[in-house]
Amino acid sequence: MSCAVALWVYNEMPKLSTVQVAKLLGMHQPNFQRAIKRGTIPAPPLANVRGIRMRLWSPKDVRRAIEALTKSKTWKRPRRTRRR
């Protein structure tokens, strides 16, 4: 029973769009799309959402993208801004 509950919780986790993931990683959206096209970032498959094709990123997919970007030499981790 606990396995079924864990699977249900995982399926209910919010999915992010490509624009949201790019913003989360501190990249501009066109650069992020270019990295996906180049194969630098492993992307989830395209999904049809109400007739619109888009990628839905799970937390696991975001983690894989972060790992791929840290291995590449072109990505710099976003700086934290100081609060005033």
Helix content: 40-55%
Oligomer: single chain
The count of β-strands is: 2
Structural class: mainly alpha
Radius of gyration: 15 Å
Helix-strand sequence: HHHEEH
Largest sheet: 2 strands, antiparallel
Distance between the termini: 49 Å
Shape: globular
Sheet with the most strands: spatial strand order: 1-2
**Distinct helical segment count:** 4
How much strand content do the residues show? 5-15%
Give a brief rundown of this model:
Helix content is 50%, strand content 10%. It has four helices and two strands. The longest helix is centred in the last third of the chain and has 13 residues, at 59-71.
Topology summary:
Layout lengths: L1 H11 L5 H8 L3 H10 L7 E4 L2 E4 L3 H13 L13
Antiparallel strand pairs: 1-2
Task: Explain what you see.
Helices cover 50% and strands 10% of the residues. The chain is built from four helices and two strands, in the order αααββα. Strands 1-2 form a two-stranded antiparallel sheet. The chain is globular and about 40 Å long.
Core attributes:
single chain, 84 residues, mainly alpha, 4 helices, 10% strand, disordered N terminus
